[in-house]
Fold:
Amino acid sequence: EAGVAQSPRYKIIEKRQSVAFWCNPISGHATLYWYQQILGQGPKLLIQFQNNGVVDDSQLPKDRFSAERLKGVDSTLKIQPAKLEDSAVYLCASSLGDQANEQFFGPGTRLTVL
Amino acid sequence: GNSVTQMEGPVTLSEEAFLTINCTYTATGYPSLFWYVQYPGEGLQLLLKATKADDKGSNKGFEATYRKETTSFHLEKGSVQVSDSAVYFCALSSWGAQKLVFGQGTRLTINP
Structure:
């Protein structure tokens, strides 16, 4: 079974530029998550989708971050404009959405903002 | 709000040593508890989980017991190997809220 796919794996941009990340969850997984992991910290949820609807985006900085999950499958996360403090690893995870809630994580995209 | 506190790292042990990584949590209700592991260059993987009080999760020789009275979920292994070197994350999810809340992670290095 294929795992969660993410691209790109690495991205370096200058502050005030825009960047987008892509995630393809495990087939059949209804729930998709984007987490931000700053160096030396645990991942922090940015946004959670159930199919193509947003369940939780309470910690998403909506002035600069946006995310969508068209057709309830793939998802993109965008940052516009980027700030230095956005340097982090962005992790995508998916789960069946049942109470067992086992989340499967992709390899992440490491973003460096200069 | 919900939170997880992990033992500060890094932790360095010799091969075959006994491992304990402490984890305590604050949560409303009855959360599910997890340990995730991140090997060098790889993504987060679920190591083990427990969904109710007194449950013991186990995998690959690792164990953790859900202790409601002490709000803890300490990770243990009787004899570590070099291949166990990784970053370990304790996490919880509340009933009805599927998002994971993670601790800060503990980097473990095992020397031969």
